[in-house]
Protein backbone atom coordinates (compact mmCIF):
# COMPACT_ATOMS: atom_id res chain seq x y z
CA UNK A 1 0.00 0.00 0.00
CA UNK A 2 1.22 3.50 -0.82
CA UNK A 3 2.47 5.28 2.28
CA UNK A 4 0.73 8.49 3.31
CA UNK A 5 2.62 11.70 2.68
CA UNK A 6 3.92 14.01 5.42
CA UNK A 7 5.17 17.55 4.92
CA UNK A 8 6.52 19.95 7.49
CA UNK A 9 9.07 22.71 7.84
CA UNK A 10 10.95 25.08 10.12
CA UNK A 11 12.09 28.63 9.50
CA UNK A 12 15.82 29.27 9.33
CA UNK A 13 15.81 32.09 11.81
CA UNK A 14 18.85 31.35 13.93
CA UNK A 15 19.01 28.26 16.02
CA UNK A 16 16.35 25.69 16.81
CA UNK A 17 15.07 25.49 20.37
CA UNK A 18 13.64 22.62 22.33
CA UNK A 19 10.10 23.83 21.55
CA UNK A 20 10.77 23.24 17.86
CA UNK A 21 12.29 19.89 18.72
CA UNK A 22 9.60 18.53 21.04
CA UNK A 23 6.73 20.20 19.19
CA UNK A 24 7.77 19.15 15.71
CA UNK A 25 11.06 17.49 14.76
CA UNK A 26 11.07 14.73 17.35
CA UNK A 27 7.66 13.64 16.08
CA UNK A 28 8.87 13.72 12.49
CA UNK A 29 11.67 11.38 13.48
CA UNK A 30 9.50 9.03 15.54
CA UNK A 31 6.93 8.52 12.81
CA UNK A 32 9.11 8.80 9.73
CA UNK A 33 9.18 5.14 8.77
CA UNK A 34 5.38 5.10 8.46
CA UNK A 35 5.23 7.88 5.90
CA UNK A 36 6.70 9.30 2.71
CA UNK A 37 8.16 12.49 4.19
CA UNK A 38 9.09 15.90 2.84
CA UNK A 39 10.83 18.27 5.25
CA UNK A 40 11.71 21.71 4.04
CA UNK A 41 13.69 24.60 5.41
CA UNK A 42 11.21 27.42 4.87
CA UNK A 43 13.57 30.24 3.98
CA UNK A 44 10.92 32.27 2.12
CA UNK A 45 9.01 32.52 5.38
CA UNK A 46 12.13 33.77 7.13
CA UNK A 47 12.00 37.14 5.37
CA UNK A 48 8.45 37.98 6.44
CA UNK A 49 10.08 39.83 9.35
CA UNK A 50 13.29 41.88 9.00
CA UNK A 51 16.16 39.45 8.36
CA UNK A 52 19.92 39.47 8.01
CA UNK A 53 21.11 38.58 4.48
CA UNK A 54 24.56 37.81 5.88
CA UNK A 55 23.28 34.87 7.92
CA UNK A 56 20.31 33.51 5.95
CA UNK A 57 22.28 30.98 3.88
CA UNK A 58 24.27 29.77 6.89
CA UNK A 59 21.10 29.46 8.98
CA UNK A 60 19.55 27.40 6.19
CA UNK A 61 22.47 24.96 6.36
CA UNK A 62 22.18 24.87 10.16
CA UNK A 63 18.54 23.84 10.06
CA UNK A 64 19.08 21.22 7.36
CA UNK A 65 21.99 19.78 9.36
CA UNK A 66 19.87 19.77 12.52
CA UNK A 67 17.13 17.80 10.75
CA UNK A 68 19.71 15.11 10.04
CA UNK A 69 21.34 15.39 13.46
CA UNK A 70 17.96 14.91 15.16
CA UNK A 71 17.54 11.66 13.26
CA UNK A 72 15.75 12.36 9.99
CA UNK A 73 16.65 9.43 7.76
CA UNK A 74 17.05 9.98 4.03
CA UNK A 75 15.68 6.52 3.42
CA UNK A 76 12.27 7.83 4.43
CA UNK A 77 12.55 11.57 3.94
CA UNK A 78 13.39 14.23 1.40
CA UNK A 79 15.06 17.33 2.84
CA UNK A 80 15.02 20.47 0.73
CA UNK A 81 15.07 24.26 0.77
CA UNK A 82 11.77 26.01 0.04
CA UNK A 83 13.26 28.76 -2.17
CA UNK A 84 14.93 26.12 -4.37
CA UNK A 85 11.53 24.96 -5.59
CA UNK A 86 9.91 27.93 -7.30
CA UNK A 87 6.51 26.22 -7.38
CA UNK A 88 6.05 27.34 -3.74
CA UNK A 89 6.03 31.02 -4.66
CA UNK A 90 3.95 30.40 -7.75
CA UNK A 91 1.23 28.39 -6.04
CA UNK A 92 1.18 30.95 -3.22
CA UNK A 93 0.25 33.61 -5.77
CA UNK A 94 -2.54 31.52 -7.25
CA UNK A 95 -3.89 30.77 -3.77
CA UNK A 96 -3.63 34.45 -2.83
CA UNK A 97 -6.16 35.27 -5.48
CA UNK A 98 -8.79 32.94 -4.05
CA UNK A 99 -8.16 33.64 -0.35
CA UNK A 100 -10.39 36.28 1.26
CA UNK A 101 -8.37 38.97 3.00
CA UNK A 102 -10.35 38.68 6.20
CA UNK A 103 -9.30 35.02 6.60
CA UNK A 104 -5.73 36.25 6.95
CA UNK A 105 -6.55 39.18 9.20
CA UNK A 106 -7.99 36.71 11.70
CA UNK A 107 -4.73 34.78 12.14
CA UNK A 108 -3.52 34.95 15.75
CA UNK A 109 0.16 34.73 14.84
CA UNK A 110 -0.19 37.60 12.41
CA UNK A 111 -1.84 39.75 15.04
CA UNK A 112 0.83 38.90 17.61
CA UNK A 113 3.75 39.46 15.25
CA UNK A 114 2.21 42.59 13.72
CA UNK A 115 2.02 44.22 17.15
CA UNK A 116 5.77 43.67 17.57
CA UNK A 117 6.55 45.10 14.11
CA UNK A 118 4.69 48.37 14.63
CA UNK A 119 4.74 50.42 11.41
CA UNK A 120 6.87 47.92 9.53
CA UNK A 121 4.39 45.10 9.00
CA UNK A 122 5.02 43.68 5.53
CA UNK A 123 2.43 42.26 3.16
CA UNK A 124 4.52 39.09 3.41
CA UNK A 125 3.76 38.75 7.12
CA UNK A 126 0.04 38.85 6.42
CA UNK A 127 0.43 36.46 3.50
CA UNK A 128 2.67 34.04 5.38
CA UNK A 129 -0.09 31.41 5.96
CA UNK A 130 -0.94 31.32 2.24
CA UNK A 131 2.67 30.47 1.42
CA UNK A 132 2.48 27.82 4.14
CA UNK A 133 -0.67 26.45 2.51
CA UNK A 134 1.20 26.29 -0.80
CA UNK A 135 4.05 24.36 0.90
CA UNK A 136 1.64 21.75 2.16
CA UNK A 137 -0.75 21.47 -0.77
CA UNK A 138 1.99 21.13 -3.41
CA UNK A 139 3.02 17.81 -1.89
CA UNK A 140 -0.51 16.47 -1.45
CA UNK A 141 0.35 15.96 2.20
CA UNK A 142 -1.99 13.75 4.21
CA UNK A 143 -0.48 14.78 7.54
CA UNK A 144 1.32 17.87 8.78
CA UNK A 145 3.17 17.36 12.07
CA UNK A 146 3.49 20.71 13.87
CA UNK A 147 3.30 22.33 17.30
CA UNK A 148 0.05 23.67 18.70
CA UNK A 149 0.80 27.23 17.51
CA UNK A 150 0.44 26.19 13.86
CA UNK A 151 -3.02 24.66 14.24
CA UNK A 152 -4.86 27.72 13.00
CA UNK A 153 -2.63 27.89 9.91
CA UNK A 154 -3.47 24.27 9.18
CA UNK A 155 -7.18 24.99 9.42
CA UNK A 156 -6.70 27.87 7.01
CA UNK A 157 -4.82 25.56 4.61
CA UNK A 158 -7.75 23.17 4.66
CA UNK A 159 -10.19 26.01 4.00
CA UNK A 160 -8.13 27.35 1.09
CA UNK A 161 -7.85 23.90 -0.49
CA UNK A 162 -11.57 23.27 -0.08
CA UNK A 163 -12.38 26.65 -1.61
CA UNK A 164 -10.20 26.04 -4.64
CA UNK A 165 -11.66 22.55 -5.10
CA UNK A 166 -15.13 23.94 -4.77
CA UNK A 167 -14.66 26.78 -7.23
CA UNK A 168 -12.61 25.02 -9.89
CA UNK A 169 -12.89 21.28 -9.37
CA UNK A 170 -15.61 18.78 -9.91
CA UNK A 171 -17.14 16.16 -7.63
CA UNK A 172 -15.20 13.22 -9.06
CA UNK A 173 -11.79 14.76 -8.95
CA UNK A 174 -10.45 17.09 -6.30
CA UNK A 175 -7.62 19.34 -7.37
CA UNK A 176 -5.96 19.70 -3.99
CA UNK A 177 -5.79 17.11 -1.24
CA UNK A 178 -7.10 18.32 2.13
CA UNK A 179 -4.39 17.73 4.77
CA UNK A 180 -4.78 17.01 8.49
CA UNK A 181 -2.66 18.37 11.33
CA UNK A 182 -0.65 15.93 13.44
CA UNK A 183 -0.14 17.49 16.85
CA UNK A 184 1.33 15.34 19.59
CA UNK A 185 -0.09 15.50 23.08
CA UNK A 186 3.25 16.01 24.78
CA UNK A 187 5.56 18.87 23.84
CA UNK A 188 3.05 20.57 21.54
CA UNK A 189 3.45 23.81 23.47
CA UNK A 190 6.75 24.26 25.31
CA UNK A 191 6.74 27.43 27.38
CA UNK A 192 9.40 30.08 27.98
CA UNK A 193 11.94 29.53 30.76
CA UNK A 194 11.40 33.05 32.00
CA UNK A 195 7.58 33.12 31.81
CA UNK A 196 5.56 29.94 32.06
CA UNK A 197 2.54 31.63 30.49
CA UNK A 198 4.17 32.48 27.17
CA UNK A 199 5.40 30.16 24.44
CA UNK A 200 9.11 29.46 24.01
CA UNK A 201 9.97 31.37 20.87
CA UNK A 202 12.88 32.11 18.54
CA UNK A 203 11.81 35.72 18.33
CA UNK A 204 11.98 36.38 22.09
CA UNK A 205 14.87 38.85 22.43
CA UNK A 206 15.95 37.13 25.69
CA UNK A 207 18.08 34.08 24.91
CA UNK A 208 17.67 33.02 28.55
CA UNK A 209 14.02 32.27 27.75
CA UNK A 210 14.86 29.21 25.66
CA UNK A 211 17.22 26.25 25.43
CA UNK A 212 18.63 25.94 21.93
CA UNK A 213 19.57 22.54 20.56
CA UNK A 214 23.17 23.68 20.10
CA UNK A 215 23.64 25.38 23.48
CA UNK A 216 26.77 24.29 25.36
CA UNK A 217 26.38 22.37 28.66
CA UNK A 218 27.55 25.48 30.55
CA UNK A 219 24.91 27.62 28.89
CA UNK A 220 22.16 25.08 29.53
CA UNK A 221 23.20 24.99 33.17
CA UNK A 222 23.12 28.77 33.39
CA UNK A 223 19.70 29.00 31.74
CA UNK A 224 18.12 26.42 34.01
CA UNK A 225 19.74 27.98 37.08
CA UNK A 226 18.24 31.36 36.18
CA UNK A 227 14.85 30.14 34.96
CA UNK A 228 11.74 31.37 36.70
CA UNK A 229 10.35 29.24 39.53
CA UNK A 230 8.19 29.81 42.61
CA UNK A 231 8.67 29.58 46.38
CA UNK A 232 6.43 26.52 46.84
CA UNK A 233 7.99 23.28 48.09
CA UNK A 234 7.04 20.07 46.29
CA UNK A 235 6.63 20.04 42.52
CA UNK A 236 3.32 19.35 40.82
CA UNK A 237 1.84 19.32 37.32
CA UNK A 238 -1.28 21.19 36.20
CA UNK A 239 -1.52 23.79 38.97
CA UNK A 240 -2.81 26.93 37.19
CA UNK A 241 -1.00 29.03 39.80
CA UNK A 242 2.32 27.36 38.89
CA UNK A 243 2.79 27.49 35.10
CA UNK A 244 6.60 27.41 35.36
CA UNK A 245 6.48 24.32 37.54
CA UNK A 246 4.23 22.55 35.04
CA UNK A 247 6.51 23.50 32.14
CA UNK A 248 9.74 22.42 33.84
CA UNK A 249 8.29 19.09 34.93
CA UNK A 250 7.00 18.55 31.40
CA UNK A 251 10.46 19.29 30.02
CA UNK A 252 12.01 16.84 32.45
CA UNK A 253 9.58 14.18 31.23
CA UNK A 254 10.35 14.96 27.59
CA UNK A 255 14.13 14.90 28.05
CA UNK A 256 14.14 11.77 30.21
CA UNK A 257 11.47 9.83 28.34
CA UNK A 258 9.63 9.27 31.64
CA UNK A 259 5.84 9.37 31.77
CA UNK A 260 3.92 12.13 33.49
CA UNK A 261 3.00 9.76 36.34
CA UNK A 262 6.63 8.74 36.82
CA UNK A 263 7.80 12.36 36.88
CA UNK A 264 5.02 13.35 39.27
CA UNK A 265 5.96 10.58 41.69
CA UNK A 266 9.69 11.28 41.45
CA UNK A 267 9.41 15.03 41.98
CA UNK A 268 6.49 15.49 44.37
CA UNK A 269 8.73 15.95 47.40
CA UNK A 270 11.51 17.85 45.66
CA UNK A 271 12.46 21.48 46.02
CA UNK A 272 13.96 23.51 43.19
CA UNK A 273 17.48 23.10 44.59
CA UNK A 274 17.24 19.38 43.95
CA UNK A 275 15.19 19.49 40.75
CA UNK A 276 17.18 22.03 38.76
CA UNK A 277 20.46 20.06 38.69
CA UNK A 278 18.48 16.94 37.76
CA UNK A 279 16.80 18.74 34.85
CA UNK A 280 20.14 20.24 33.80
CA UNK A 281 21.94 16.90 33.67
CA UNK A 282 19.06 15.24 31.86
CA UNK A 283 18.83 18.02 29.26
CA UNK A 284 22.58 18.02 28.63
CA UNK A 285 22.66 14.24 28.23
CA UNK A 286 19.67 14.23 25.87
CA UNK A 287 21.10 16.95 23.62
CA UNK A 288 24.66 15.59 23.51
CA UNK A 289 24.13 13.00 20.73
CA UNK A 290 22.31 15.57 18.57
CA UNK A 291 25.13 18.07 19.04
CA UNK A 292 27.81 15.50 18.22
CA UNK A 293 26.05 14.34 15.09
CA UNK A 294 25.51 17.96 14.06
CA UNK A 295 29.26 18.68 14.27
CA UNK A 296 30.03 15.60 12.20
CA UNK A 297 27.59 16.62 9.48
CA UNK A 298 28.91 20.17 9.33
CA UNK A 299 32.49 18.93 9.04
CA UNK A 300 31.74 16.64 6.10
CA UNK A 301 32.36 18.98 3.23
CA UNK A 302 29.91 18.84 0.36
CA UNK A 303 27.58 16.39 2.11
CA UNK A 304 24.82 18.85 2.94
CA UNK A 305 24.95 20.32 -0.55
CA UNK A 306 24.42 16.90 -2.05
CA UNK A 307 21.50 16.19 0.31
CA UNK A 308 19.86 19.50 -0.56
CA UNK A 309 20.51 19.07 -4.26
CA UNK A 310 18.85 15.68 -4.52
CA UNK A 311 16.10 16.91 -2.17
CA UNK A 312 15.37 19.76 -4.54
CA UNK A 313 15.13 17.41 -7.53
CA UNK A 314 12.68 15.09 -5.79
CA UNK A 315 10.62 17.92 -4.35
CA UNK A 316 10.43 19.71 -7.69
CA UNK A 317 9.06 16.68 -9.48
CA UNK A 318 6.17 16.33 -7.04
CA UNK A 319 5.50 20.05 -6.65
CA UNK A 320 5.47 20.82 -10.37
CA UNK A 321 2.80 18.18 -11.01
CA UNK A 322 0.45 19.78 -8.50
CA UNK A 323 1.18 23.25 -9.78
CA UNK A 324 0.36 22.17 -13.32
CA UNK A 325 -2.90 20.60 -12.16
CA UNK A 326 -3.93 23.82 -10.40
CA UNK A 327 -2.99 25.97 -13.40
CA UNK A 328 -4.99 23.73 -15.71
CA UNK A 329 -7.98 23.93 -13.39
CA UNK A 330 -7.72 27.72 -13.32
CA UNK A 331 -7.75 27.77 -17.11
CA UNK A 332 -4.23 28.93 -17.91
CA UNK A 333 -2.86 28.66 -21.42
CA UNK A 334 -0.10 26.03 -21.14
CA UNK A 335 3.43 27.30 -21.98
CA UNK A 336 3.88 27.23 -25.78
P1 LIG B 1 8.46 27.74 13.19
O1 LIG B 1 9.75 27.80 12.45
O2 LIG B 1 8.03 28.91 14.01
O3 LIG B 1 8.44 26.49 14.15
C1 LIG B 1 8.78 25.20 13.67
C2 LIG B 1 7.95 24.13 14.37
O4 LIG B 1 8.16 24.22 15.78
C3 LIG B 1 6.89 24.30 16.45
N1 LIG B 1 7.06 25.14 17.64
C4 LIG B 1 6.76 24.76 18.89
N2 LIG B 1 6.25 23.61 19.37
C5 LIG B 1 6.09 23.51 20.72
N3 LIG B 1 6.39 24.52 21.58
C6 LIG B 1 6.89 25.69 21.15
N4 LIG B 1 7.19 26.64 22.00
C7 LIG B 1 7.10 25.85 19.73
N5 LIG B 1 7.58 26.86 18.97
C8 LIG B 1 7.55 26.40 17.69
C9 LIG B 1 5.96 24.94 15.43
O5 LIG B 1 4.62 24.63 15.70
C10 LIG B 1 6.45 24.31 14.14
O6 LIG B 1 5.87 23.04 13.95
N6 LIG B 1 4.94 28.43 9.77
C11 LIG B 1 5.83 27.47 10.32
C12 LIG B 1 6.77 26.86 9.32
C13 LIG B 1 6.13 26.32 8.09
C14 LIG B 1 5.46 25.08 8.00
C15 LIG B 1 5.08 24.97 6.63
C16 LIG B 1 5.16 24.09 8.92
C17 LIG B 1 6.12 26.89 6.87
N7 LIG B 1 5.50 26.08 5.97
C18 LIG B 1 4.37 23.85 6.17
C19 LIG B 1 4.46 22.97 8.45
C20 LIG B 1 4.08 22.88 7.09
C21 LIG B 1 6.70 28.15 11.37
O7 LIG B 1 6.94 29.31 11.35
O8 LIG B 1 7.28 27.30 12.21
Automatic annotation (TrEMBL):
Domain of life (superkingdom): Bacteria
Entry binding sites for ATP: 11-13, 19-20, 147-149, 190, 199-203
UniProt-listed Enzyme Commission number(s): 6.1.1.2
Localization (cell): Cytoplasm
Motif 'HIGH' region positions after renumbering to this chain: 12-20
GO MF, one annotated term: tryptophan-tRNA ligase activity
The reaction(s) this protein catalyses: tRNA(Trp) + L-tryptophan + ATP = L-tryptophyl-tRNA(Trp) + AMP + diphosphate + H(+)
Ranges spanned by the short sequence motif 'KMSKS' region, renumbered to the chain: 199-203
Keywords: Aminoacyl-tRNA synthetase, ATP-binding, Cytoplasm, Ligase, Nucleotide-binding, Protein biosynthesis
Binding site for L-tryptophan: 135
GO biological process: tryptophanyl-tRNA aminoacylation
Record-stated family: Belongs to the class-I aminoacyl-tRNA synthetase family.
Quaternary structure and partners: Homodimer.
Matching NCBIfam families: trpS
Protein name, as recorded: Tryptophan--tRNA ligase
Lineage: Bacteria, Bacillati, Cyanobacteriota, Cyanophyceae, Oscillatoriophycideae
